[in-house]
């Protein structure tokens, strides 16, 4: 195992978002695992030998009395795995937590018929204090929205050299609709159409006959260059952000010639330095 992160914190402070962020980056994630169960769990998964990055959510819902042993258990984990667990603790002000629970109308996990919300929050702070004391990173999420929290987590926890943006390039025909997951849509319907050249009609944008035709067609060459320049200019900004996927859709009327040629050419350009896939919807299905 190369990396292990233990995520803890107050209920409503963003632990689920933290786990989702790490899961998107290839971590094997498990939530609400009692801290005393972690050494035994690690013994089991080490035998599998296929989990390289692990994130575990620990909170006060299950066996809260075990949290007093946090320091000893963390030392045992490091001894057994030779990997020092990285501890992230998320917290939020009482005022903001009360507003969040009021807004979502969810029940705090520690509230009972004899315990108010503010009492449950105070109790949880006390229960989690031993784990907070061991934290490498403490983040106050009181003033953060979801996107800001994801950005901070990405910056603090992830090796940016290993973070990859998955790019999908899709060609399509407008007669069958725009792809629902498209982030960018480029409309090529105004460009020269080889459909009206009888000897080219049955070919697609993947065939050399169409490639040669478009190589001599000024408008499609200019349009492609504009797309390439735009994507190359802004792609670094997307890679620095928190998104995991980017879908670029290029459409023409039938989705056989212009859009296919443009999408395939952009794919060949981007695959040099990126994780990129191409799909020709009207050809491949």
Outline the structure in words:
The protein has 10 helices and 9 strands. The chain is α/β, with parallel strands linked by helices. The chain folds into 2 domains: 3-157, P-loop containing nucleotide triphosphate hydrolases (Rossmann fold); 166-284, no CATH class. The strands form 2 sheets. Strands 2-3-1-4-5 form a 5-stranded parallel β-sheet, with helices on both faces. The chain has a 4-stranded parallel β-sheet with strand order 7-8-6-9. Strand 2 (28-30), helix 2 and strand 3 form a beta-alpha-beta unit. Helix 2 packs parallel to helix 3 (70-81).
Q: Radius of gyration, rounded?
A: 26 Å
Structural class per helix/strand content?
alpha/beta
Number of strands: 9
CATH class of the largest domain: Alpha Beta
The fraction of residues in strands falls at 15-25%
How is the main sheet built?
Answer: 5 strands, parallel
Please state the average pLDDT score.
Answer: 89
As for the number of domains, it is: 2
Q: Per the principal axes of the C-alpha atoms, what is the gross shape?
A: elongated
Instruction: Specify the CATH architecture of the largest domain.
Output: 3-Layer(aba) Sandwich
**What sequence of helices (H) and strands (E) makes up the elements?**
EHEHEHEHHEHEEHHEHEH
> Order of strands across the widest beta sheet?
2-3-1-4-5
């Amino acid at each position: 195992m190369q990396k292990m992160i233990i995520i803890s914190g107050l209920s409503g402070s963003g632990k689920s978002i933290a786990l989702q962020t790490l899961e998107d980056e290839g971590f094997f994630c498990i939530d609400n695992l009692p801290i005393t169960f972690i050494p035994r769990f690690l013994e089991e998964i080490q035998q599998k030998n296929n989990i390289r990055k692990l994130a575990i959510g620990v909170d006060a819902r299950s066996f809260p009395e075990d949290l007093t042993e946090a320091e000893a258990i963390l030392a045992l984990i490091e001894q057994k795995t030779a990997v020092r667990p990285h501890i992230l603790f998320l917290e939020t002000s009482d005022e903001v937590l009360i507003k969040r629970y009021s807004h979502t109308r969810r029940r705090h996990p520690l509230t009972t018929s004899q315990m108010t919300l503010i009492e449950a929050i105070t109790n949880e702070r006390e229960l989690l204090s031993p784990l907070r004391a061991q934290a490498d990173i403490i983040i106050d999420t009181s003033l953060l929205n979801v996107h800001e929290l994801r950005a901070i987590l990405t910056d603090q926890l992830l090796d940016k050299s290993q973070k990859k943006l998955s790019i999908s390039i899709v060609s399509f025909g407008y007669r069958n609709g725009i792809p629902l997951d498209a982030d960018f849509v480029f409309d090529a319907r105004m460009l020269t159409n080889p459909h009206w050249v009888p000897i080219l009609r049955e070919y697609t944008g993947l065939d050399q006959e169409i490639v040669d035709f478009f190589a001599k067609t000024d408008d499609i060459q200019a349009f492609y260059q504009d797309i390439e320049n735009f994507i190359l200019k802004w792609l670094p900004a997307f890679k620095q952000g928190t998104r995991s996927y980017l879908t670029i859709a290029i459409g023409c009327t039938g989705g056989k010639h212009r859009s296919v040629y443009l999408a395939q050419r952009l794919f060949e350009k981007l695959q040099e330095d990126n994780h990129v896939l191409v799909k020709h919807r009207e050809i491949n299905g």
